[in-house]
Design a protein that fits this description.
166 residues, disordered N terminus, 4-stranded parallel beta sheet, 6 strands, alpha/beta, globular
Amino acid sequence: MIDKNHKTESIFPMDSPGYTKKKKRRMIYTVYPENKLEIGMPRRAMIDLDGTIHKYSQGYSDGSIYDDAFDGAREVIKWLKNNGYEIVIFTTRASKENAITTGNDIQEEIDKVSDWLITNNIYFDRITAEKLAADFYIDDKAINIENGDWFTVLNVIKKRIKYKVL
């Protein structure tokens, strides 16, 4: 069964709802992005807010969302939506850690992000601090790894922190 599913699904035993010692065989199935269209599942784009959509020129500052959107963000997100992608905005502003650090309510932070996106006419399906399964992630802090080449990753890190490259 695993070999048959392996072409379209990744199988992970997890502590999922309903998983108990009596139900050890309960599995969570994650469909690979390239197979989603074949079986009619929605595609998902995870897009970071600060420094990716929101210019964020002054950093976190006072916690407000003060800048304009980057040129093209609205149009690309609209294209993604029109081409069948669920648009999920992810931000640490919606995290428990941010709420503890700032003393702000998580829902209030999500409402601030939502209001800014609506004011700037940027489409979204939901806002989260969680890293959800997605076809791809758009993030200003990301380092892409291809073919398991960790030495390239190290060189990118060193360039970003201004160390001598190997």
